Amino acid sequence: MSKVLNDLFDYGLYIYQDSDKFKFSLDSILLAEFVDVGSTINQIVDFCSGNGPIPMILSTKCNADITGIEIQKKIFDLGKESIEYNKLGNKIKFINDNITNVKKYFPDESIDVVTCNPPYFKFLGNNSLINEDKEKAIARHEITMDLDGMIKSAKYVLKNKGVFYLVHRCDRLEEIIHCLGNNGFNVKKLQFVYSNISKDAIMVLIKAVKNGNSGSLKIMPPIDISNLKSYKGIFERGDSHEDDSRSR
After folding, report:
1. What one-character DSSP code corresponds to residue 141?
2. Of 99, 96, 97, 145, nearest to 121 (Cα)?
């Protein structure tokens, strides 16, 4: 591991990363900024936390108690160290486990908001073309969990009318909306992200409400990274996992 300490975008925080492997992504920043927080939000859980960027960013936006869950020990350790470095231990709890085990840590219907920047690609067995680096493969492919398991875990912990925020690939949007509906979620807001507005969208931000009322879906203005210098810099460094050349 080649550990480095970097700025966490422009939030006045610092984050430990492995410069040779998985780093925090543009996806995580956009998701954290997509989350609506207010005085009624008391408990937030972030699934698939990586080295903790989303919990740390959210800690600057609200006074809620935040818990991050990350399955990979080395990445978890980086997040834990970052939380300690930024003196956020009173606001953020970090758990090293699979999100499918949330029942071990939370009562049902106890959480106001769940966020997740999950692995984007399906795992089709040993014949799948996945990254040869195990940590990158787990971060990018549904090896330790899948879409339905993630949504079921969110359903378990969220209160009635609790909110689930998710960032994912556009080519799986139909599947995501179908799976959310099967688990009692109504999609309330979508925002598409483009590397350039003249090209296809590269990802989508999703807000879904548990047992929400049908209708009133809002499509937000698109995010064009090419017009946002600071975002574009992160995208060009390759920190986003929206693409994986070994996933095809």
Report:
1. B
2. 145
What angle do the packed helices 173-182 and 147-157 form, to 10 degrees? 40
pLDDT at res. 229: 62
82-111 pLDDT, tens per residue?
999 999 999 999 999 999 999 999 999 999
Task: Give the integer Cα–Cα distance in Å for 97 and 67.
Answer: 12
Pick the closest to residue 120 from 168, 152, 164 (CA basis): 168
- What is the rounded (10 degree) CA torsion for 3, 21, 231, 237? 100
| Structural domains of the chain in order of their starting residue, each with its CATH number | 25-121+147-236 (3.40.50.150)
> 71 with 95: CB under 8 angstroms?
no
User: Cα 26 to chain center, whole Å?
Assistant: 10
* pTM greater than 0.70 (yes/no): yes
Higher-pLDDT residue of 216, 53? 53
